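Page 47, continued from p. 46.
Same chain as before, 75 aa.
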Amino acid sequence: MVIDFSLGKIIVTVHEIQCRFHDSQLVLAASVDDISCFHQGLVIVADAGTVRWSIKLDNPSQLEALLNHTGIHAQ
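Result:
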C-alpha cells in the first residue's frame, strides 16, 4: 500500500514501513514491530533502540489507512 503525503510517500506492508521523501534519496524504514502511532498529532514513531525517527502525517485518513493495513494500535 502507498500513502501519499506532503513530504513524499509512505510505503506500508504488513512487515515494514518505508518513508520516501520527494526530491531526496532519503528513505526511512522500520519493522512494523518497532512502530508506534499516535492519534494526537498524527505521528508515526519508529524506535528500534539506537535508531529513532518520527513523521507527522497530513490528515487522520492517512493514519487510519496505515493502522488498518498493519494492524498497529494507535495511542
